[in-house]
Each structure stands twice: as structure tokens, then as C-alpha cells.
Amino acid sequence: MKANGDNYFRRGLGLKAQVKPLLAEAYGSEIVKAIKAADYRLTLGRFTFRMARSLGFCYGVDRAVEYAYETCTKFGDRRIFLVGEIIHNPHVNQQLSDRGVRFLLPDELGRFEFSPVEKDDVVIIPAFGVKLGDLEKLRQIGCILVDTTCGSVLHVWKRVEAYARDGFTSVIHGKHFHEETRATSSQVLKYPNGRYLVVRDMDETDLVCAFIRGEVGSDVIRETFAGRASEGFDPDQDLARIGVANQTTMLASESLAIAARLGEATLDRYGAAEFPERFRSFDTICSATQDRQDAVKDMMSDPPDVMIVVGGFNSSNTNHLAALCAESTRTFHIESALGIDVEGGAITYKPAGAQEVQSEEGWLPGGSVEIGLTAGASTPDSLIGETAESILRMDGVDPTLIDAVLAEGTA
Description:
Largest sheet: 5 strands, parallel
CATH topology of the largest domain: Cobalt-precorrin-4 Transmethylase, domain 1
Helix content: 40-55%
Structural class: alpha/beta
Oligomer: single chain
Shape: globular
Number of strands: 16
Radius of gyration: 23 Å
Distance between the termini: 45 Å
Number of helices: 15
Strand content: 15-25%
């Protein structure tokens, strides 16, 4: 369904004006406003904060959070459930929990248990979307559904559905365990012969390319991609015609390179005459993801002394931002200002490419320091601003100076 109905809401609930002040209070930041007003560069004490010109909440996330708040307002007398997390940001999810939203969390295989949900309940579908089978289960329950699936995700779904309809296997660049990729891969199953394969990176792509060129056998593909391909996947048949798609939050340059590599292998195997009937690729990269990555690339042409990346440790797009920054300067990926020990001076962060967090003392150099700030698409301004404020307080900057600059910058 595209339009709102008695039990299905896709275009909001008509309470945008009512929840706007709640969202501004929960997620706004005066210091972020001041930095933006100062052309994204503001000096406070010995610190100069440089902010990426595209960062934080994207349109899809903003919309999903807004719809969730509208849901809490409209259906405050009912039980409200959320399938997974609304977005990959612990602060935002906690805010919804504080408002009474109950979380339905998946098992290690991404399976949800919907037995707690009853017909009179309300269920929020997150920005990542849900698998086709899960949506069908919820519809059978007959509960009210508030669908916040991002438009960029829906765009990818249309592509893979078209691939399946026309007999092409979807090769999806993404993390097979990610909610969005699970939901996207399920879309091909609308058709009896729909097939998919999920590749994580260029190394896995090269293996697929080697198979297409006849350099490795089908058993290698079956073994490598077990659990990351459609049931009964037959490489000999299912990789003869492929269409490329991607998880919207992956590194954009890598997604484009993967599509090009697969296209080259298909051309080598089948030749130019058969190529159009063997290979398809459309740009399904999220514009917000691209904009945030481009913004930090611009910053890295003249990198700051230190780069702070704010966002959930399980946020794909935030991790990619951290990786891009780490190529050029010292980079610290933190989930929030809680990662900064104001009293002790240490920072707790996740190094780019690592899985475990670590702490580091003496991470800020002495003298005048330029600190870069960026944030993933699921990070609100409030967390960015609190991070800057914690750095200032850690260094003993006079709060009255901060207030004076903020008042001037936002006047």
C-alpha cells in the first residue's frame, strides 16, 4: 500500500506540527547551529571546530523518527511495538523506549517473534524496512502498522524486484546480517525463480568474478556464500544473468567499483553481443550517504588535527565515515559525548575497521587544535553538540564564553 488506511500508515499521521517542538527539544543543538552559522568553522578557546557540510540526520531518518513520535502521540492509549531498532543510534532508540515503545528484537539469524503482538496493538516498521515474510505475519495479526521504511531503501527494492521479474539474480553489496539487506534480499522472493547473492567487499566480488570467468568451480561459491544466498542457489544457472544492487549505507565508491568489476567479468565471459542480456546495474546509492561521504572527503583535502565521528557503533554509514577520515588524520569514532571523560581526559572510541572499543589518554595535542566533526545519518545534532561541549569542558573553557559565542552565532 502507498497511502494511509485504517490499519496502515505510510505518509505520517497528520501530527507533524504537534511533535515538532518535541523533536527540536530532544535532538536540536545550539552549538551546532552556531558552527553552521559561522560557515562550519568556529573557534572557542584554543579549539577550532570544523564541521562537515553534510552530517547527521538524513531525510529518511528524520522522517522515521518523526513518524515514531507521531505514533506515540496518536496511539498513547495502546501498546506500541517497534520491529528491531528505528535507526542504528542507541540514544534515539532509548528516547523511544522512554516514551513507552516496546522493542521486538531478532535472534542471531534475524528472525522476529511476533507472538506478543495483538490485533489492537500498533507496530512501527523501522527505516530499514522488514522482510516480506515478517510484513505478511504482521498483516495477518491485523494490528495497526506505521511504516517508516526509507524512500532510498524502497528504491533499491524496486530494482531487485525488477531483476527477479526479468530473470536476473540480484548481487547485493552489503552486510548479509544487516536489517536492510535482509529486507532487500527478501524482495526478490516475490517471484518463484527470484535469486540473490550478498557480497560484503571487493575480495568476495573478485571470487564471484573468478567463477563467472570459469576460474573457480561452483562448489567454492556455494561454500563461501552459504547463508548469504537464496535457498537452493545454483551458481551455474543463477550467475549467468545478474543485476547489481547495494545496501544504501555502504561505501559509495566501493559499491560503484563492485558493479564495474562484475560488469567486466560478465563482458569477458559472454562478449559484447550478449552483455545487455546478462548484466544490469543501476545507481541505488543513497544520496544522503553519498553527500556525507563527499563532505568528509572534502575536509580531508586539508585534514584537521583530530577528527571526531559521532554515531552508533553498529551504524554502517557511520563506520564508513570513520574509515574515510582515518585515511588522512587521527580519527575517533564515538557513539556520543559519553565517550569523552571530561574529568579524566580519556576518550573511549572504536578505531576504524576494528570491532572492539578502546580508551586513550592524551588524545588531544596541546596548543591550538583544529577538531573536525562529522556524524552518521542516524546521529541527531544534540549528540554532535554535546560532544563539542564535552571537549570544551574537558579543557576548562569558561562556560560564559561558550554561551556568549552561541548567543552571537544564533542571534
